Amino acid sequence: MTLVVKISSLKEASDEQLLAQFKQTGDQQFLAELYLRYSQLLYGVCLKYLEDAEEARDAVMNIYQELLVKVPRHEIQNFKSWVYVLTKNHCLMHLRSAKKNITVSLEQHTVQSDDFSHLDSVIEKEEAFKRLEKCIEKLPREQQQSIQLFYYENKCYNEIAETTSMDWNKVRSLIQNGRRNLKICMEKNAAK
């Protein structure tokens, strides 16, 4: 029995009529009409399983391509139920393949090249520390002593004044001038 559906009445045609016309003629307008009827259902199913709107839209578009291949090969009694199951299976297959292709984000500290850059920074710090030591040695004796007590032994101005028997203002001046001289020295040696 051949069902002929007029193009102007595609909207009124039943699912069974559209399926039969597509299988008989291969004309995609019949399948497209059927697909559009259930596209919102398909999108909802895809969104439920994939949990991403963009992926769900892509999946719905891919399902149309799948319909072009599978509809002619299957005996479909109830298109709505059949396309629902097809969509669910499509999403599950997508999720399974996504699990096989898991993308792992490697933290910066676990990457081997990061270890080398860490070593580079350690070496740079060591070199800077050596330059600092040489610059401290070049300071006048009182500045050198005040800087060492303040930075290396964590003594406050009062403690340095007591230890060295110097005036508090002199200690403050020695540390400020020592820092300025160290900065100048470090900048000169960094250029080398």
Automatic annotation (TrEMBL):
Protein name according to UniProt: Sigma-70 family RNA polymerase sigma factor
Organism classification: Bacteria, Pseudomonadati, Bacteroidota, Chitinophagia, Chitinophagales
Source species: Niabella yanshanensis
Top-rank taxon, per record: Bacteria
Gene3D superfamilies: 1.10.1740.10, Winged helix-like DNA-binding domain superfamily/Winged helix DNA-binding domain
Residue intervals of the RNA polymerase sigma-70 region domain: 34-100
Keywords (A to Z) from UniProt: DNA-binding, Sigma factor, Transcription, Transcription regulation
Name of one Pfam family that matches: Sigma70_r2
Annotated ranges, domain RNA polymerase sigma factor 70 region 4 type: 131-182
